[in-house]
Amino acid sequence: MTGLLEGKRVCVTGASAGIGRAVAIGCARHGADVAVNFGSDRQGADSAVAEIEALGRKGVAIQGDVAEPESATRFIDGAVAELGGVDIFVNNAGICPFHSFLDMPTEVFERTMRVNMHGAYFMVQAAANQMVKQGDGGSIIAMSSISALVGGEFQTHYTPTKAGVLSLMQSTAVALGKHGIRCNALLPGTILTDINKDDLADGEKREYMERRVPLGRLGRPEDMVGPTVFLASDELAGYVTGAALLVDGGMFVNLQ
Q1: How do residues 138-152 score in pLDDT, each as one tens digit?
Q2: Residue 106 maps to which CATH number?
Q3: In this structure, is residue 46 part of a structural domain?
Q4: Pick the catalytic residue: 71, 144, 147, 158?
Q5: For the whole model, what pTM was predicted?
Q6: Identified catalytic residue from 16, 145, 147, 233
Q7: Which side of the chain, N or C, has fewer Cβ within a 10 Å radius?
Q8: E strands, 73-176, where?
Q9: Is 253 within a domain?
Q10: Is residue 162 among the annotated active site residues?
Q11: Total of domains in the chain
């Protein structure tokens, strides 16, 4: 444990599995107490909390569908009640139900927008209001995606939400700077999680994706911990706000 986040109180959405889970536990390794939001996977959330507590930190799991605006205030209020406040907020929850464009069901499009974009907006807003109330600044980090910068044939509903999350961090960096709140985006490349496991079950497609990555492999959820801790840390990133950091093994720049 490095203590970069010693004594900090962290909230992470979508933290029962994948990137969110890895980030929540990773922040605890660096000294933070952590509140994890989850939708339906109570077992995953509870096991994440157990790992956080095994590291000697306080953990709490709070259920809520991020697509519902009221879940944002419920999550933040619950975190304040259990941890005493919120210093770092990580917006991670997201979905990507792959589907073709021409016959995109309205409900798939709208659900993706509500979870990824609306959920991010109201969660970030609730966290920011708490940080302003506390008066000590803070750090807000949103998981955007390489998909904010490139298109995807079966992601016409998804890529706009990730571009929106990136833009949200840029605008909130301006809006919240006067309160000492830093807002930054992380842009993961292809990370092996539940969101893409079915798509990458195709061995040929997985090999193609791996060949596109200069570092020679797809990402793991744990690859997102270091960049998150960097942006969360006042010591390391105290003058970083409105930034976007690609974490993709070099995939974006590999055009050959």
Answers
A1: 999 999 999 999 999
A2: 3.40.50.720
A3: yes
A4: 158
A5: 0.95
A6: 145
A7: C
A8: 88-91, 138-143
A9: no
A10: yes
A11: 1
